[in-house]
Design brief:
- This protein is rod-shaped.
- The protein has two domains: 190 residues, f41 fragment of flagellin, N-terminal domain, CATH 1.20.1330.10; 38 residues.
- It has a two-stranded antiparallel sheet.
- The relative contact order is 0.16.
- It has six helices and two strands; from the N terminus they run H-H-H-E-E-H-H-H.
- It is mainly alpha-helical.
Length: 276
């Protein structure tokens, strides 16, 4: 190759190649600064981007699981509120039953206590029937009434956790006893009141445990999301301080490359002096 040629300017070619490399590096750096990502798409790093997308999918799944648990928590909180009121009413009912078990009551007194008992019994029924959230209840086993077991997703894999519904009829006491003996029987071990009170307490314990589990699951999911986001950041986030310093260096290098290319392009001009 002739060193002194107007057809082939080796110096300009070298300068142009260097300038192109600088421009490519500058474009990549500007992309990292504008997006905040070292790996913004598969073109930057296919393997890292694929892993990042998988992690993002896990985060989206866990977030959705927590949203679903939140809806179930609404049903559960409503259930616990209703059961708490039922338990309070049952305490009042016990007091009335003890009075009804007294054989010395007059007919008038017994009628008044029976009326009080029925009023409290109605309250219990209302608390149970009103313990619904978004049309769902855990105090009814009939699906037609919005009852039945509730299976909620708890993680990004769709694994479920089941809350078992209870039959509200098993929590509702029988009608007012007609005499002292019937009231005493209801209060005795294995009697109607004792059985229903035990069922209420069991339901409170079960749903209370369910509530604790779901709260801990939500907390764990949030911590897991934080961990995944930290790992994702380490994988794809750009070091903006480093990129800023690199940007300035590349801008200067670009200017120098442009000047070098200009000088190289002027080299063939010196050949004109040979023909004067």
């Amino acid at each position: 190759m002739a060193l002194n040629s107007v057809n082939s300017n080796v110096g300009a070619q070298v300068a142009l190649q260097s300038l192109n490399r600088t421009n490519d590096a500058l474009s990549a750096t500007q992309k990292r600064i504008s997006t905040g990502y070292r790996v913004a798409d598969a073109k930057d790093d296919g393997a890292a981007f694929a892993v990042a997308q998988s992690v993002r999918a896990d985060i989206a799944g866990i977030t959705s699981a927590n949203e679903q648990i939140g809806g179930v928590k609404g049903v559960l909180d409503t259930t616990l509120s209703g059961l708490t009121k039922v338990s309070e009413a049952m305490s009042d009912i016990r007091g009335v039953l003890v009075k009804l078990a007294d054989g010395t009551l007059s007919d008038s007194q017994r009628t008044q206590y029976q009326s009080q008992y029925e009023s409290l019994r109605t309250q219990v029924q209302n608390y149970i029937s009103d313990a619904t959230y978004n049309g769902r209840t855990l105090l009814d086993t009939a699906s037609a009434s919005g009852g039945g077991n509730i299976a909620t997703v708890r993680n990004e894999n769709g694994t479920t956790y089941t809350l078992s519904a209870v039959d509200g009829a098993n929590l509702t006491i029988a009608a007012a006893p007609t005499d002292a003996a019937a009231a005493a029987t209801a209060l005795a071990s294995g009697g109607d009141f004792s059985t229903k009170m035990a069922a209420v307490n069991t339901a409170l314990n079960t749903f209370g445990s369910n509530n604790t589990y779901l709260e801990k699951q939500v907390s764990y999911n949030k911590e897991k999301i934080d961990s995944l986001e930290t790992g994702l950041g380490a994988l794809v986030d750009a070091d903006l301080a480093k990129e800023s310093a690199k940007l300035q260096a590349l801008q200067i290098k670009q200017q120098l490359g442009t000047q070098s290319l200009g000088i190289a392009n002027q080299a063939p001009q010196s050949l004109l002096s040979l023909f004067r």
